[in-house]
């Protein structure tokens, strides 16, 4: 009996101790935000919220609606660990394994480039081309019906993406164009693993992911390795220079996804040569979309003119009115 009495008392004291040492969501957020501000992280408030929401398994709205909700010591110490890692340069997306792109949540990790909002412009342009006006604000020329059940909806479009990373571009297009066939390539096996995981999670069928160094798998085989005649080619290949690579905010992302050679355009130059070699002979109409750094618009235009002299070139702007995408019709 005495033993039971002691036992109950100890449990009670322990519960009181745990409860008293718990802190509220708002206090934890204050700590996290201040720590990130000290490190001069611009989005300190939002980042702290996203990291804590991830630890608690809450949506951000639920987190903000319950400022007095207590969090356990274990949760608080996990939150502090994430704040420290973020201070060391790991992005919120890498730490939470999740990044929203074009309204869809993608799984991400250290092996892939974290999808960027600029790349939504690339998607927007492809959707605009087929008459599907996107959600970011691009007003495409409506040339096709937007209802996939419409018999005249573009059914047999083949889309080839080079440098797919997390698969965010290919899978987003596949979601909005369920009747298109998409082949997405990457040279990185680890990135392809992430892309395939996203395909499974999102239950998207009309995309295939394959390993290839640019178009080498098409070029080197006596016959095309995968029978695929693209109508649209898309690429967001690495385009940063050595100097740009030194930017601390990208220090934890894979170099393979960022470095584009001396002037940042080596991979695009190689790709344009391969496109010329493989597709130009066939006299097929292909529309190519390339994402660029706005400072590269003059140089990429020159490269295109050198390799595909008859191509029609158009520069497309992002929301900041900077050249972001090159559209090439061959
Ligand atoms: C800038 S990331 C773009 C990823 C994704 N498409 C996006 O927009 O978020 C470039 C991708 O190209 C891949 N890559 C780099 N060199 C390549 C090559 N020679 N052939 C194919 N893919 C390559 C990288 O592994 C990386 O996943």
UniProtKB/TrEMBL annotation:
Range of residues in the leader sequence: none
Keyword annotations: Membrane, Methyltransferase, S-adenosyl-L-methionine, Transferase, Transmembrane, Transmembrane helix
All copies of domain Methyltransferase, residue ranges: 156-282
TM regions (residue ranges): 6-25
Residues of the Release factor glutamine methyltransferase N-terminal domain: 28-95
Pfam families recorded: Methyltransf_31, PrmC_N
Enzymatic class: transferase
SUPFAM superfamilies: S-adenosyl-L-methionine-dependent methyltransferases
GO BP term, example: methylation
EC number of this enzyme: 2.1.1.297
One Gene Ontology term of the molecular function aspect: peptide chain release factor N(5)-glutamine methyltransferase activity
PANTHER family (alphabetical): HEMK METHYLTRANSFERASE, MTRF1L RELEASE FACTOR GLUTAMINE METHYLTRANSFERASE
Protein name: Peptide chain release factor N(5)-glutamine methyltransferase
Lineage: Bacteria, Bacteria division CPR3
Gene designation: prmC
């Amino acid at each position: 009996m005495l033993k039971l009495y002691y036992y109950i008392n100890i449990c009670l004291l322990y519960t009181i101790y745990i409860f008293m040492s718990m802190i509220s969501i708002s206090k934890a957020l204050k700590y996290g935000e201040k720590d990130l501000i000290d490190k001069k992280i611009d989005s300190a408030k939002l980042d702290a919220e996203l990291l804590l929401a991830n630890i608690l398994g809450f949506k951000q709205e639920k987190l903000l609606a319950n400022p007095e909700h207590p969090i356990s010591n274990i949760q608080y110490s996990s939150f502090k660990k994430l704040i420290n890692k973020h201070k060391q340069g790991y992005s919120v997306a890498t730490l939470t394994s999740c990044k929203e792109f074009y309204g869809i949540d993608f799984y991400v990790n250290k092996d892939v480039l974290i999808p960027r909002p600029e790349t939504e412009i690339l998607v927007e342009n492809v959707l605009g081309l087929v008459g599907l006006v996107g959600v970011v604000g691009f007003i495409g020329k409506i040339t096709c019906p937007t209802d996939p059940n419409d018999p005249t909806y573009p059914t047999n479009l083949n889309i080839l993406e080079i440098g797919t990373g997390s698969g965010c571009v290919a899978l987003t297009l596949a979601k909005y164009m369920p009747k298109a066939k998409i082949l997405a390539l990457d040279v990185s096996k680890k990135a392809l693993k992430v892309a395939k995981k996203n395909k499974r999670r999102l239950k998207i069928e009309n995309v295939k992911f394959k390993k290839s160094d640019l178009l080498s798998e098409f070029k080197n085989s006596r016959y095309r390795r995968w029978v695929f005649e693209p109508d649209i080619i898309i690429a967001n290949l690495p385009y940063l220079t050595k100097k740009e690579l030194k930017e601390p905010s990208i220090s934890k992302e894979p170099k393979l996804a960022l470095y584009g050679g001396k002037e940042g355009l080596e991979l695009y130059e190689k790709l344009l040569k391969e496109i010329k070699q493989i597709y130009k002979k066939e006299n097929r109409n292909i529309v190519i979309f390339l994402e660029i750094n706005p400072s590269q618009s003059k140089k990429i235009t020159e490269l295109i003119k050198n390799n595909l002299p008859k191509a029609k070139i158009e520069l497309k702007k992002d929301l900041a009115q900077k050249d972001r995408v090159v559209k090439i019709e061959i």
